[in-house]
Amino acid sequence: MSIENKERRQVLKGLGAGLLAATAGVPFFAMAQNETLVRFLDMPEDYDVPPVEPGSTHIINTREITNFYSRDFYVVQHYGQPDVPVEQYKLELTGLVNRPLSFTLDELKAMPSREIDAGFECGGNGGRMFQGLVGNARWRGVSLREVLNQAGIQDLGREVVFFGADQGTEEIRGRQVEQSFARSLSVEDAMSDDNLIVYEMNGMPLEPHHGYPVRMLIPGFYGVANVKWLTQIHVQDTRYMGRFMGRDYVTLKHENVGGEDRWMETSVARMNLKSAIVRVTRRNNIHRISGFALNDGTPIRSIEVKIDDGPWMEAMIDPQASQYSWKPFHYEWRNASPGEHTIVSRVTDINGRVQLPQEQLPERVSYWEEFGQFPRRVLIEG
Ligand SMILES: Nc1nc2c(c(=O)[nH]1)N[C@H]1C(S)=C(S)[C@@H](COP(=O)(O)O)O[C@H]1N2
Ligand SMILES: [Mo]
């Protein structure tokens, strides 16, 4: 059985009572010819986003998602877009390993590869940009674990650091220092079966803004973990504390710590359980509410939609969804009454974890990890 089918089976098992669409094969985000967009009152009517521009952030218009595999995938890069000439490209494996290694792109491509469907969002995604820092793709690459095993991690190795080719100047304690974009994982997280050193996205070589020639893919983690333009993997015996692990992408939130009320700072890592409505359409007299869910790969039990003060109603989940992909969903809204309505979605996983309204989440003084419910205002025409 292909890995894909295995994943699908796992996710379907996890879906349990969750409703699956009978219309398998029809992309959930596709729109029929006579289907029209319903107005969001919380979004400018002429909301539009600029196209990808190398070196800058690209927010997608989530209302215009048409495919399971994103045609328009968001872009974030903190130090601009480096040029990585493939003739000179090398991925170095260094540090506490028995055999330091070095790979050209061709050498990586000659190794056994795997494909996986995975979606992710930026740790800074949220309602401000209508959840537009998100994407879903099919990735191809080689197993990080295989590569680490080839090198042989020494007993003292604790942490695996991934460095990109892009660099910026950071002021740290009054001093200007050149730093490369980098993120790290514990050896245990790095050795997870699912992590890939990736060179293909949706069947094509990575585009320059998505990390050409090689990037990381850590399924289930926020986008920041997926280091682009990957040039070095380094094993060390201490935690890595660079900007994107220790200072930035750090969430400050109120937590109960063994009975003590504390302000805690945590590095953005695994994705929180989240769903969001991105579009409402109308076809004849039927309205359709569409959205997506994302999480850390824990199987999903249900996605539900609530209209005004009504009950939670189960939405259909795209049968194409798999463990780490996004989960497109839709809900057929019959007899929608003309006027203004508030609609919201929530996702529940098989452990019973439920996506809560923003105001019921612990106090969070941060721009990062916005995963509460995301209510939308719509106007139904008579
Ligand atoms: N080398 C490098 N990798 C990086 C970044 C970066 O600035 N430099 N940004 C990270 C962040 S914050 C996100 S959200 C994702 C975005 O991936 P994408 O642009 O392919 O969507 O890349 C991550 N990998
Ligand atoms: Mo990000």
Automatic annotation (TrEMBL):
InterPro entries cross-referenced by the UniProt entry: Ig_E-set (IPR014756), Mopterin_OxRdtase_euk (IPR008335), OxRdtase_Mopterin-bd_dom (IPR000572), OxRdtase_Mopterin-bd_sf (IPR036374), TAT_signal (IPR006311)
GO terms for MF: heme binding; molybdopterin cofactor binding; sulfite oxidase activity
Signal peptide range in chain numbering: none
PROSITE patterns according to UniProt: TAT (PS51318)
GO biological process: sulfur compound metabolic process
Coiled-coil intervals, chain numbering: none
Oxidoreductase molybdopterin-binding domain residues: 81-242
Pfam families reported for this sequence: Oxidored_molyb (PF00174)
Membrane-spanning ranges: none
Xref: PANTHER family: SULFITE OXIDASE, MITOCHONDRIAL, SULFITE REDUCTASE
Protein name: Sulfite oxidase
